[in-house]
Design goal:
The chain is mostly helical. It has two domains: 43 residues, no CATH class; 212 residues, Ferritin, CATH 1.20.1260. Helices cover 67% and strands 0% of the residues. It is built from ten helices and no strands. The longest helix is centred in the middle third of the chain and has 33 residues.
């Protein structure tokens, strides 16, 4: 009696373990795992989880050397009153930020550049997330498809956040700095949300002009590096998180990181200027991960 029960229990245990593996890994795993290997399977599961920590969910462009060096400073001329309002709003914000952050005065060194990058990226990651959330709720409320906008907007938000995560590997902001970020984000999130409810076109045009300024900023950073004004970064290797995200080589340096970030901003510039001209019910022409500058 007992040998039969033991045999039946063993068969059931083997089936349960195999079914679990089948759900996670596929049919090939069904014939490979046995009842004596659950601990080994758990170890592999934990190892895979550790490897995936910090990995991104959304596909994003991986830029080639030709891509990053082909980025140019461009400007889309405002045509409508809404475009002009968006453009001059960005110019006003940049002027005030440059003035009160002290960026216009004194020597630009690595610390000043990191402060600027970190602060700006905490703001740049807001529009994509707010726009995606608004469109997501609209899709739920109207019970309609979103036409592919949400994924592109979420990828943009995540991409900007990865710029921030990379910069934070080089500098730990002070409590006062974090307080300024908290206050700025609290204002910007709510204002942008209300604006997006009223006019998505205006908001995408605003972000398009914001990204134009970002391309100018990172181009100026590259010029400072090439001119020898940032000697520390000339010998600083790219953080591991940047190598993993942009698939950079093992010998990648900070200049390669800045080039990749600038290419991202140029991509966002094009995407948002395009979305601003489209009807909000139109099909999004940009798939997540598409490479267009």
């Amino acid at each position: 009696m007992y040998p039969r029960l033991l045999q039946r229990f063993t068969r059931q245990r083997h089936f349960l373990v195999s079914a679990t593996c089948l759900n996670r890994e596929g049919i090939r795993c069904f014939s490979q795992i046995s009842a004596n290997e659950p601990k080994h399977f758990a170890a592999e599961k934990n190892e895979d989880a550790n490897k995936s920590q910090g990995s991104t969910v959304f596909p994003h462009p991986i830029w080639s050397a030709e891509d990053v060096h082909s980025v140019k400073v461009t400007h889309t001329e405002p045509k409508t009153s809404s475009d002009k309002l968006a453009y001059w709003s960005v110019q006003l914000l940049r002027f005030n930020f440059d003035l009160f952050s002290g960026f216009k005065f004194g020597k630009r060194h690595e610390g000043k550049w990191l402060n600027r990058i970190i602060f700006l990226e905490t703001v740049a990651g807001v529009p994509g997330m707010v726009a995606a959330m608004t469109r997501h709720l609209h899709s739920l409320r109207k019970m309609r498809r979103d036409h592919g906008w949400i994924h592109t907007l979420l990828e943009e938000a995540e991409n900007e956040r990865m710029h921030l995560m990379t910069a934070l590997k080089l500098r730990n902001p002070s409590i006062l700095f974090r307080a300024m970020v908290l206050m700025t984000q609290g204002i910007f999130v709510n204002v942008f949300f209300l604006c997006y409810l009223v006019s998505p076109s205006f908001c995408h045009r605003f972000v398009g002009y914001l990204e134009e300024e970002a391309v100018k900023t990172y181009t100026k950073c590259l010029e400072d590096m090439d001119a020898g004004h940032l000697p520390i970064w000339q010998h600083t290797k790219a953080p591991a998180i940047a190598k993993d995200y942009w698939k950079l080589g093992d010998d990648a340096m900070m200049r390669d990181v800045i080039l990749a970030i600038r290419a991202d901003e140029a991509h966002h510039r094009l995407v948002n200027h395009t979305l601003s001209t489209m009807d909000k019910e139109s099909q999004n022409p940009y798939l997540p991960g598409a490479k267009k500058l």
